User: Fold this.
Amino acid sequence: MENSPDETGSLRTEEVRRVLDRLHDAARWDLLRFVGLAPRLAIGFLKRKDRSEILTPSVMRNAFIPVSRESGMLLYLTARAIRATCIVEFGTSFGISTLYLAAAVRDNGGGVVIGTEIEASKHERAVANLREAGLGDLVEVRLGDALQTLKDVPDPIDLVFLDGWKGLYLPVLELLKPKLRAGGIVLADNILDFKKALRPYVEYMQSGQNGFESTTLSVAGGVEYSYCRG
Ligand SMILES: C[S@@+](CC[C@H](N)C(=O)[O-])C[C@H]1O[C@@H](n2cnc3c(N)ncnc32)[C@H](O)[C@@H]1O
Assistant:
């Protein structure tokens, strides 16, 4: 077997591990942040608003709501398996998922991860975290609404990761689909956490009518794993 450029793998390097450990630890405080949001949620539900109307990006500006380590590894391993060199991510937050994706791109020999984040303070922190981990040169985190910032991503896209606000999964997918290569993969997080809101997305992916083969994995809050037939 030929030696790959990643004799040890980027996730095992001291600088990436240090940043990932710190961010996963800090994200555990999300639990308390959610407790603090309970009154706001209760009032919102009484007014018949849905979760995404109540928990807007600005209300959630201090919350990580990241992928678990398990889902992060699923991202890394998938990107490695398909030798992804062009990855697009919707919903970067503080950059935890982006770190796994960028590590994979580095270990695949180079390329680009294009992330997007609508909250300016999170965008700034994500850029700093990726730089500190030594992966900043592989990532472009675009500040703004994904439906605008992802309009001109390059093609072909090997892998798409959807993890922003749930009502936008389908519109963002439709925006990116023409650039997704045959054999490309789309991973979408929180499928079981937001079963009702994401039902149209799951139906679209699993119908067999839209160019995908797809299944829901019971990893963390549920990950829709979809293969693009092209
Ligand atoms: C679940 S978090 C992402 C977590 C991240 N993938 C991780 O693993 O660390 C969702 C993020 O999407 C961002 N977001 C929501 N709507 C957005 C939009 N329209 N465009 C870009 N980002 C958006 C939110 O501000 C939030 O930080």
